[in-house]
Design brief:
ten-stranded antiparallel barrel, 40% helix, seven-stranded mixed barrel, alpha+beta
Length: 440
């Protein structure tokens, strides 16, 4: 095996050992948790960020302690995959007679319901190993003082004290074997590290020498940058160039923000192709209207289109004058109602609409009515008034009927209307907006 490979293996083993030690000694939790609280009369010796366990398995961590009345309230963060029940209990347990304290939880009975985030669980009766020893000492003292003997319970209490002492000694014995095993493992690992270090001592020294050489070269390079006259030195030491660079960066930030605003507005636009085909029963003619609706949001819209689209070879003058008329409207929407105005069939006009069930801007409207008033300068006849209603069949198709020129001709006209959303136009407008901003 090459010496460089041996050195790499040594460094990797050392790093792994450090990481394992950090996670073994520290208190880390991964993943999502929920909080539960528990109140103890005494938490003496319990360290901050102590571990929370069930049956000896880590399930959480102590996150905070505060005084609530005469008791200490502990905030426990429990892993989300651990389920506790309403009758769960918690106790403070020591790892041996002088070991680290942790919080042991009995999860409880499923029939009592599940503990939720922020609930309080009950502290188990009894105490820690230190409390057991203290109680044991009290019992022995009372036995020898004769106090319990006076009540006829001396032998019973002495038996209890001996049983408690056996429990304590067993716990000490169990922990002693674990401690011995851990010490032996550490000793073996240390010996391995010493052997690796001895075998690669020369290479380790060479590595430190190379690191020192690189550090010295960096010092020389930095010194030349600050004292020299090259491009890098000029960038660092020339105050005017620094100000120019700062202004350039500021300008770039403003341009990027402008692009973001422009793209944001363009992406929120909604485009809709509109087609209205209507059949006038009175003169038995079918007419077409086509246009596009632009909606910046649900409260405003623009409409541009052509009404009465037809060829120009019609002989009737009045009919010819009404063909291919411009429509350009600005409208405002208020939940179920809308008002609009502008150029309507080539003349000034206004209108209003109302949706009985859904919002006026909804893709599908069950029933909607409307009225349009235009051609207000028409001689002797007064303005043209159209009124009608339509029923939504799908999100893009509706059918209805309207009465055209209510005040004069009163022509009944059935119609169908198509409203087709176009997302590509919004994307195209966004690209055009970016190009316009970037050329400024």
């Amino acid at each position: 095996m090459r010496d460089n490979v041996k050195l790499g293996i040594f460094v990797s083993i050392a790093l792994i050992a450090i990481i394992i030690s950090i996670f073994a000694v520290g208190s880390f939790t991964l993943g999502k948790t929920y909080r539960v609280y528990v109140d103890f009369p005494n938490i003496s010796g319990l360290l901050a960020k102590a571990k929370v366990k069930i049956a000896g398995v880590d399930v959480g961590i102590l996150k905070g302690v505060q005084l609530k009345g005469s008791k200490a309230r502990l905030t426990l963060h429990i892993n989300n995959d651990i389920v506790l029940y309403k009758n769960a209990t918690a106790s403070i347990v020591s790892m041996g007679i002088i070991g680290t304290k942790y919080i042991e939880i009995d999860p409880g009975d499923p029939s009592f319901g599940i503990v939720r985030d922020g609930d309080v669980i009950t502290a188990a009766p009894g105490g820690s190993l230190e409390d057991t020893l203290s109680g044991l000492a009290d019992k022995i003292t009372k036995v020898f003082d004769g106090e319990m003997g006076k009540n006829g319970d001396m032998f019973g209490n002495l038996a209890d004290a001996i049983y408690d002492l056996k429990v304590v000694m067993k716990s000490i014995s169990d922990q002693n074997s674990k401690i011995t095993s851990a010490i032996n493992n550490i000793d073996r690992f240390s010996g391995s590290l010493v052997q690796i270090a001895d075998a690669n001592k020369n290479y380790i020294n060479d590595s430190f020498a190379k690191i020192k050489d690189v550090s010295d070269r960096l010092d020389i390079l930095i010194s030349r940058i600050y004292t020299g006259s090259g491009t890098v030195s000029t960038l660092i030491n020339d105050q005017q160039m620094g100000e120019d660079l700062k202004e350039t960066i500021t300008s770039a930030k403003e341009t990027i923000k402008s692009l973001q605003d422009t793209v944001g507005r363009a992406s929120s636009l909604q485009f809709q192709w509109d087609y209205l085909g209507r059949y006038n029963i009175k003169d038995e003619k079918f007419r077409n209207d086509i246009g596009i609706t632009i909606m910046p949001d649900n409260t405003k819209f623009y409409y541009v289109g052509i009404s009465n689209v037809a060829d120009s070879d019609v002989t009737d003058r009045e009919e010819r004058d009404s063909m291919n008329r411009l429509e350009a409207l600005l409208g405002f929407r208020f939940n179920k109602a809308e008002v609009y105005g502008g150029v309507m069939r080539g003349t000034a006009g206004v209108g209003a609409g109302y949706s009985f069930f859904e919002p006026i801007y909804a893709p599908y409207r069950t029933l909607q009515t409307f009225v349009n008033v235009y051609n207000m300068g028409r001689e002797k006849r007064g303005p043209e008034v159209d009124a009608g209603a339509r029923i939504g069949l799908t999100k893009w198709l509706s059918a209805g009927i309207m009465v055209e020129d209510v005040l004069y001709k009163t022509a009944v006209t059935p119609f169908v209307k198509l409203e087709i959303k176009d997302r590509d136009l919004a994307a195209l407008l966004g690209i055009i907006s970016i190009a316009a901003v970037s050329t400024k």
